[in-house]
Amino acid sequence: MLRKYLILFFPLLIAVFLKETPFWSYLIAWLGSFYVFYVTWVQYGYEFSNEQPIAEGIMHPIFLIQAIFTGFMCCTSIFYFYDIYQHSLSDPKYIQELYLTAKSQRLSLLAHIALVLGIISLYGYKDKSVRINNTYTPAFYLKLTLLCYSLGFVFNWMSGLNQFALYLFNISSIAGVFLLVAGLTNQQAKFIWLGLTFFIFNFLSATLTGFKESIITSLLILFVLLFPLYKKTVIILSIPVVYLLVYILPTYAGIIRQESWSGGTTVEDARSMALEQILDENNQEKIKETNWQFLTERLSEISMFNQFVGFVPQKRDYYYLEIVENSLEALIPRVLWPNKPITELVAMERVYDAEVINRNSIASAKTRPVVDGYLSFGAFGIFISIFLYGMFVQWAYNKSENLFNGYELGGIVIFNGIFQPLWRGNNFEFILNNMVYGLLSLFLIYYILRFLKLLNHDQL
What we know:
By secondary structure, the chain is mostly helical. 70% of the residues lie in helices and 0% in strands. It is built from 19 helices and no strands.
């Protein structure tokens, strides 16, 4: 099956051939990701949606995770490249950065191809003996929402179990939106209002975190789940919503962090201050400057990738298996190893070594999977690590579908609730942690639902 997907490498080969002309090399590599989207979604998309419309299976990894993971990694770099290219026309010192950006984009395209091949390699390997029941009532999703939220609340107060709480809260959030969708599908007003209430509660909670991703994720889940029912409406609404998010989120999140994280202000007061400053006409120019800085530096993080590409192996040898060893050590519970190094600090060491940020800075700039793959073994490390990443994503998805009776509960709610951190990815230390403890959570939830007789299943 993988053989026919060798055509995905064509844009990469052209981009490598043109590497001495960075403008065209970058542009071909950037467009190459859209070519991969076309091949996997349009040309062969029917293979991954059981010959149904893609909208009916949009939360399969080949669609959702590919869109988010590679969208951030590959497509958003255009803003940074445009900014650097404009500077390079009048200032020769930016030429080297132009070459680095083109190289980083080629490496990102390689990661995109590897992810797709990894997902495809295990697509369809599901346990055919398991009886699949795709339909669950709104009442079931109401119970699941309340159950997972309650368990998450309990786990959040138990030392060492916080990450399990995160998975449970995520499941509760998606199940709450699905309650809204199920209510709309079955035309039951009670469940529509309950689902809407859960969504508003989760969305308002997300606005207090200071993280842009939390707000974006809440709206993304809503739009994706409503898309099969209201395609045109979702498409029309998503355009102004995306514009509004890009316009206000960088400033909004920055003020929340500044005022509530270190300014001693309550998060509710910080939110009010942020909204007041955004609506103040005198701040519009400052907001535009903040937005452009966000689009060029924070959205894609390719500028940080450039620094690592320029650092390794020219100034420091590859890390080889060092990052993997750190990741394995991070899996050991602190109760068994009280003096275990803090994972965040261990991961930040390579960021400091490459001088991405100063050691005295309070900012966090954790690497992404493509960066850690490159730091480990260069281009080969990227291909192998991201290919395995794709394989794991699809394998875990298959297992979730098998355990939880199909796409609706297993694929949409459980898998994307537990493995939501894999949508965009993180450094190796946190990725492996999510993979291992996410699988433990998968089985834990399965047995809890079986014990409560909420899930009727013939086998494990």
